[in-house]
Design goal:
It is a single chain. Helix 11 crosses helix 16 and helix 13 crosses helix 15. With 1090 residues, the chain is of the alpha/beta class. It contains 33 helices and 35 strands. Keywords: Membrane, Transmembrane, Transmembrane helix. InterPro entries: Beta_helix, Pectin_lyas_fold, Pectin_lyase_fold/virulence, VanZ-like.
Length: 1090
Amino acid sequence: MMRFFITLLYLLIAYGSLFPFDFSLIEFNQNYHHILRFKLTSLGDTVANIALFAPLGLFYGLMNNYISQPLLNSRLLLKVAFFAIILQLLQIALPTRDQNIVDVIFNLAGFVVGYYAVFILRLPNQLPTLKLQHLPIAIGLLYILSELVPFVPSIDFQAIKDSIKPLLLWPGVDVVWPIIFSSVLWLLTIRLFSFQCDYVPVKRAAQVWLFMIVAKILVYGVSLSYVDLIAPLIAIMLASFLTLQGESFTKLLLSVVLACFLTSSMASFGDKNITLELFIPFHGYLSGHLAVAVQGVLFKLFLFSAVIWLAFELMWPVKKVALLLGALVLTIELAQLFMPSKTTDFADVLLVYLAYRLVRNLGDFLASHQEAVADNSVALNTKKQVSLNINMQPTRLKQIIIFSGVFFLLYLGINTLFSLSALPTNVVELFRHQGSLTDVFFFFIFLIIFATSSALIVRYLTEIDTVKVSQMLILHFALLFCCFVALSLAVTFESIEDIVGSAKLPQLLYKHQTSEHFGMVLVKVFSLTNIAIAARYLEFSFRFIFLVTLIQTPLTLWLLISHSKLSAASKLKATCVSFALIILAYLVVFTFAVTDNLTELIASPLLFVVALMLLTVSTVYSIIQIKKGSVIQAIIVTCLFAGLSWFLAQYVFETVIIKYGHVFSAFDFILAGSREDKIVTSALMIRWSIGIFLVQWVFILGYFWLESIKSIKVNRAAIPLIKKGTVVVLAIACIVYVGNRLFGEQLHWQTLQQHFANTHKQNYAIDSSTAYLPKTITAGQVFLNNEPMVDLKSAFELAQDGDFIRLSTGFYQQAAILKASNVSIIAEKGAVLFGKTVEGKGAIVIKGDNTYIEGLECHSIYVPDNNGVCVRLEGKGLTLNNVYFHHAQGGLLGSPKGGDIRIEQSRFEHLGDGAFYHGIYTLERTRLFINNSYFLNNRNAGHEIKSRSSHTEIVNSTIAASQSRDSRLVDVPNGGVFVLRDNLLVEGIYSENHDLLSWGVEGVKHSTGSIIIENNVFISDKAKARLISLRDSPKTLRVVNNIVIGQILGFTKEDNLFFTNRAEASLPRAPQLPLLSKEQIRKDKKKYEY
């Protein structure tokens, strides 16, 4: 064996010294005399010359020790010196080589160092302590070493910072394959570590992983990536979950490793200039990139040696395996001649041979020191389990690793998914904070409960050996309610509403808001808005529970039927209860549906339920097969059902839907980017099949994860305490809330006082006016650049950037989408837009930028989602001048894309009609400027103005709610710059909220925060009110030179002028708006001053 490696080293030294073999006689004749010159070389060349011959000395030392000849004889030294001199002589004829007799001296020095290192380090004494199990560990460590090239540590803090900078950039889709490949390699490494072990070396693997992370931070020129963090964690998690020593698993792992190696080695074919040098072995390594060369050699030695070692363990003919592997590598290298992105190097075939000899010879050598050597000179434990079984007894540490690994993988997967194009809009807008860490955490909790709820019910019922209907129903509804709670913390309520439909209970509360009944008065005291939110939450949870029942209940039923512990009577009882639940859920979800999403998308509700039951049958069958050890069969079954479900879905879902002027299918709505951006049928089928496959495996993995934690002890005595503690905490929270509403602030208590004293009755009622529409209406004419158009939709579709659209006097029961930018829309006096919406959003949906609208009147805009508006901005920048929006669900909904929104000389009145919405609503990244405009009597507890903009400035305007049940006059929930100057603000007695204004109540999200309230007139017709609600204090707060009429808290007497009521200020009684100027009010005030 030693002679083989020594001969190989001679060949490699000669090969590396004489590359690229471009010998020239002319070069030899010109430079042969240079060989006698002594020339000192650089430090790098000196170290390289020493290191070149050190391995040769090392192997000679080992061989001579073996034949009891420890001393270095002169004959051997002369032999090595002669070899080194011959190399220098040959280098004279190489134009690219610099011959130097000094190199021979350093070569001999390296040889001597390597030779005596054997005895200094006492390697001969260490060899007997080595065991066969150290060989696969050494092979696995080759992979770790390949990740740490060039092995040079650095204490440069800038280099350390550079090594972790890749973690600051969120990875894209291109990181998915490296994670998969690296996960397989780490799993292979852990498999090598586990040779002749009765346990999975999770701790050892974790230590190696942490060492590699620290080393990558410290090693110069090496950076840490998300692959280094995620792939080892995935591998450790899988290793904790699987039996690694089984024959089936070893074969499967070997197949996956070779498949990944083949996939990563092949790329798309293309043009490549094939030259003779591509056929020279090690050409890629001898071209100057030493670090890359060493990394490649170590990695390929690891991979080839690991494959050959697994063949040893499987007791396959190793020589044949090595030959087949060499043939595969040779085929890959030949194919790479035609791949521009790949480097061809036929030396990889030699590396296969080297890996074979290393494993073969070292295996024989180490096995000779052990007893019980099996065939192929490898001690194999043939009594290991031969099936791919799930490990059912993980420790708490393993559970934490599994939990953390799956969560981090889910977080990466969701954010990677969001980086893709052509995602469905419903998916993009799903999460509350665009897939943040907290969003994914609660979504992960939702998936855990969703996946394990059926298994939990089955476990509980089988433990008591009977099916109790009450306990089965309690568990069912409790688990699904917890499932809904977790989901509601992760996704937006708009997304939930899209699925379960709009809530009816809040609408019922708002419908009776003007009732004089004490119950409604009490509701107002406890906050009608909060109670409506709670009612919406409960209604959503109710509908969600019954929707999920359609899949959870059949799954529970099939699991119970497949369980052998339950009697036939118990199974019959479970069947009856389950089908009763399914029928009830069918009635709630479809017969009494409150959303058109399900009824419009699903063509046959009955087939939909049947399809869900078939999905659960496939899932339970796969679970049974996995229990029997047939994981592959389970994968095949779930894949087969996922594919076939696409054809069944053609009968379940609508294939043609005509809505909002578009023709699309249910699959386009669910799986494509939008109704307009359709994708090919094959892509829809792939997305659908992947989704169905994942749903099945969520249930399967949830079932086995729950089975795996049976051995983990739970303190059942603590469960009743937790239940009681939860009830106590909820009771205390309710008492604190009610006490705060009644006694914490007099503003809420006064509502009850007024009710019992009958002082709340006024000589005017809440405004209930409706939009005026004449019996005979005349349609107007739309012009695009003074050219008459058929309708508004045609004009908007044909409009180009910078065009001019004019609406003549008349009524337009039309709606349209504007995609062009810098478009001006001018409406003549009497041009009225009413009664129609587009895309379920509003009358005018603007997707372009910098739009100008003037003179338009708009009313009667309603959509099922209760957020229908006259103008829906989805682009950037909008100016509204002299518009009149009234009697609609909303006036304006802004865009989060940025830009300025300017409103001038306009009127917004009686909005929030029939829904909880706001007069205008602007979103983040925009700036809002309002001048000389009116915002009057918003309804149904909405705000006249709600602005999430970074800058909100309102001047010379009137904001009043003297005859409506609004909430706040101006709500700026996310902070920012808030300027209120030279305005009239009036809060009526019906306003639900006692705060006129708010700032930052939902959390300050803008870097700059200031409040300036000056030169305004504030009027409150309530007994008491408060100027502004603040969650955090802004950097600047200035409230000066305002006139305050009524009992409004929050003003300083030194900086503002006060009147007790309207009469003292000589103003007309409520609900009239004063017409006097601020100067006149100040002049009248002097009558009371001495």
